[in-house]
Design a protein that fits this description.
HspR, transcriptional repressor of DnaK operon, DNA binding, three-stranded antiparallel β-sheet, 58% helix, DNA-bd_dom_put_sf, 105 residues, Multidrug-efflux Transporter Regulator, Chain: A, Domain 2, MerR-type_HTH_dom
């Protein structure tokens, strides 16, 4: 079980460490863009006790990919769907490689 605080969470890609303003700044987007990708179902930020959105590094990578597609002219909803499919494909390829390694062992 991971501790809920301390240095381990700094290495945790899923730890919601970034506020909306900081997250938007890090990926070169606006808070409105982060809200839009949230509404499109791409990412679901956690909420602080005060109700503020908090983002993880993993969520920021996903949002940054969507931003790249939007910058190329893809509508936000389509960009979000593409990123979801890319993420699912990456996971399927990872699982497939893992199963092949287990077969070969």
């Amino acid at each position: 079980m991971k501790p809920s605080h301390g240095p381990d969470r700094l290495d945790d890609d899923d730890y919601p460490a970034y506020t909306m303003g900081r997250a938007a700044e890090m990926i070169g987007a606006t808070p409105g863009f982060l809200r839009a990708v949230g509404e499109a179902g791409l990412i679901t930020p956690l909420r602080s006790d005060g109700g503020h959105r908090r983002y993880s590094r993993y969520q920021l990578r996903i949002a940054a990919r969507a931003r790249e597609l939007v910058d190329q002219g893809t509508p936000v909803e389509a960009a979000c769907r593409i990123v979801i499919l890319e993420d699912q494909l990456d996971e399927a390829l990872r699982l497939n490689a893992e199963l092949r390694r287990a077969e070969d062992a």
